Amino acid sequence: MINVLIVEDDPMVAKFNRIYLEKVTGFTVIGVVHDISAGQLFLNNNDVNLVLLDIYMANNNGLDLLVEIRNADINVDVIVITAANDRSSIQRALRNGAFDYLIKPFDFERLKDALLKYREKFERMKEGQDVQQKDLDAFLLKKSIHNINPIDLPKGLTVPTFARIARQIAEWENRPFSTAEIADKTGISRVSISKYLKYLTGQDVLKVEVIYQETGRPLHRYLLQPERINMLHSLIGEIK
């Protein structure tokens, strides 16, 4: 799990940020504090991977905590969530290594995109794993390892059908599903769906498991690869 600290002086905003965050698989909130000094103390005494940081706080500027984190070489990442939309604040945050910067008000999908991208980075940068250039490019250049261009789908696959299937898969990002389940939800024939699932499996977007039923017939169960979730959402966004 990715341990998250929320630094936000408005209790209601902190509550909603926590609710939003815990909707995304792989994240857990281990602390909520309301000022910089409490944030610094919490970081010194707890194992935190990610900080959701507000800037405007009573008698505090959240960016001062970001600077302290960098000066103290604390191994933690920061996503800034703030109403501050001035160039100075944005530049200061980015220059001090903020992973992302969200301007209030924002919708859940924007926060979800930021968290999914961070989770992808977190998985790729685990200790003990060699890092390749393509791994860095996945988040430094905001690319996915496999760049699927839906306009260039293989012969026989169409963009509208791809979009319908992709949106349904995105809703089931954390559980396995079958061809029949997608057919029930979309109204698309199983034969047609199978072609798209085969394509997505070949692109490493999906993994497939074959389960043999009591009758001996095989049942294919598909699951969206965790590190490809953000890519699928990007594809859906391109199709809109």
Note down, in words, how this protein is organized.
This protein is an alpha/beta fold. It is built from ten helices and nine strands. The strands form three sheets. Strands 2-1-3-6-7 form a five-stranded parallel sheet, sandwiched between helices. A two-stranded antiparallel ribbon has the order 4-5. Strands 8-9 form a two-stranded antiparallel sheet. Strand 1, helix 1 and strand 2 form a beta-alpha-beta unit.
Layout: helices, strands, pairs:
Layout: E1 2-7, H1 11-21, E2 27-33, H2 36-45, E3 50-53, E4 56-57, E5 60-61, H3 62-71, E6 77-82, H4 87-95, E7 100-103, H5 108-124, H6 133-140, H7 159-171, H8 179-186, H9 190-202, E8 206-212, E9 218-224, H10 229-239
Parallel strand pairs: 1-2, 1-3, 3-6, 6-7
Antiparallel strand pairs: 4-5, 8-9
Helix pairs in contact: 2-3, 5-6, 7-10, 8-9
List the helices and strands in order. EHEHEEEHEHEHHHHHEEH
Largest sheet: 5 strands, parallel
Instruction: Give the strand order of the largest sheet, numbering strands 1, 2, ... along the chain.
Output: 2-1-3-6-7
Number of helices: 10
How far apart are the first and last residues' alpha carbons, in Å? 32 Å
> What is the global morphology?
elongated
Q: What portion of residues belong to β-strands?
A: 15-25%
